[in-house]
């Protein structure tokens, strides 16, 4: 499995050029040191094998190693951040169609 660290450098550069990149951002997600992080500062990742937009392909052992960034029942889409429904019915945050994950070893 190849996991890509989501680098938000372009988003941060765009902030300097045109103001706020994210008109609305979920409270569960922040930008820190050029990366997407959660509210506690843990790095968020995307998975290269998630080929279909807004659909997670990470299940079973993958999900044990790369836990999903869960969305609450009351969470709603915000600009480029979307709430997706996983195969098991749980909800997960995605950015630009790429589901967001933690790494269990962080």
Short synopsis of the structure:
This protein is α+β, with helices and mostly antiparallel strands and 106 residues long. It has helices at residues 9-18, 61-65; strands spanning 3-5, 29-32, 35-38, 45-47, 81-85, 91-95, 98-99. It is 14% helix and 25% strand.
Describe the structure.
The two termini are 17 Å apart. The strands form 3 sheets. This protein has a 3-stranded antiparallel beta sheet, with no helix packed on it. The chain is 14% helix and 25% strand. It is globular. The protein is built from 2 helices and 7 strands. It is of the alpha+beta class and 106 residues long. The longest helix is centred in the first third of the chain and has 10 residues, at 9-18. It has helices spanning 9-18, 61-65; strands spanning 3-5, 29-32, 35-38, 45-47, 81-85, 91-95, 98-99.
SSE arrangement:
Blueprint: E1 3-5, H1 9-18, E2 29-32, E3 35-38, E4 45-47, H2 61-65, E5 81-85, E6 91-95, E7 98-99
Record keyword descriptors for this entry.
two-stranded antiparallel ribbon; alpha+beta; 106 residues; globular
- Anisotropy-based shape: globular
Gyration radius over CA: 13 Å
- Which residues form runs of ≥5 with pLDDT under 50? 1-20
Percentage of residues in helical conformation: 10-25%
- Strand order, main sheet: write it out: 5-6-7
Question: How many helices in DSSP terms?
Answer: 2
> What is the makeup of the main sheet?
3 strands, antiparallel
Order of helices and strands: EHEEEHEEE
E-strand count: 7
Q: How does the helix and strand content classify structurally? A: alpha+beta
Report the mean per-residue pLDDT as an integer: 83
